[in-house]
């Protein structure tokens, strides 16, 4: 039996096909920002590959891997005007306003910094009171979405090698694996999320 790309199920494709196997999960890899560099996914630690490709909650994956609770520490949040690229991926007019939330995901026991993440949310497409739900769940946006009971799916857009963004000065400029995905609810994007994995 073979998957959609013709690779036998259970078989590991040789050479460059490993890159194709992994990248096919990202629907807009060719549209990734210019500053993101290629990543030889075959050489990545399996844990990093799982983090890049998971369409579940990153905090849950981190907790399972590191065996400690993960807490989302807010860095900043508030309204932000979208640039043309972000507006496109959120399917809103250019220069529209979104709710921007920036957090650091840290180990609640070790205080290890694992991820910095920026979420751009379209409040009009989310349930009333969703903003309050975000504040109630220390493990982040994914937990708030789950608790709200809305049906949603994640659409992986792109990934690459980059650096921690300047908005998190504690680690700004450090090398990081980065990915961007969007959360879709009711056929419309409700969030655009960029995560940098240290």
Count of distinct structural domains: 1
Name the structural class.
alpha+beta
Supply the CATH superfamily name. Chorismate lyase-like
**How many strand units?**
6
Mean pLDDT: 85
- CATH architecture type: 3-Layer(aba) Sandwich
Number of helices: 6
Beta-strand content? 25-35%
CATH secondary-structure class: Alpha Beta
Q: Unreliable stretches, pLDDT < 50, 5 or more residues?
A: none
- Portion in helices: 10-25%
Radius of gyration: 17 Å
What is the CATH fold-level name? Answer: Chorismate lyase
Instruction: Report on the biggest sheet.
Output: 6 strands, antiparallel
Q: What distance lies between the first and last C-alpha atoms, to the nearest angstrom?
A: 37 Å
Instruction: Describe the global form.
Output: globular
The strands making up the biggest β-sheet line up spatially as: 1-2-3-6-5-4
* Order of helix and strand elements from N to C terminus: HHHEHEEHHEEE
Keywords: Lyase, Pyruvate
InterPro entries: Chorismate_lyase_/UTRA_dom_sf (IPR028978), Rv2949c-like (IPR002800)
Protein name: 4-hydroxybenzoate synthetase (Chorismate-pyruvate lyase)
Pfam family, one: Rv2949c-like
What does it look like?
This protein has a 6-stranded antiparallel sheet with strand order 1-2-3-6-5-4. Strand 5 (175-185) and strand 6 form a beta hairpin. The chain has one domain (17-197): Chorismate lyase, CATH 3.40.1410. Helix 5 crosses helix 6 (141-148). It has helices at 17-23, 46-53, 58-66, 84-90, 130-136, 141-148, and strands at residues 70-81, 97-107, 113-121, 153-163, 175-185, 188-197. The protein contains 6 helices and 6 strands. The mean pLDDT is 85. With 198 residues, it is an alpha+beta fold. GO terms for molecular function: lyase activity. Keywords: Lyase, Pyruvate.
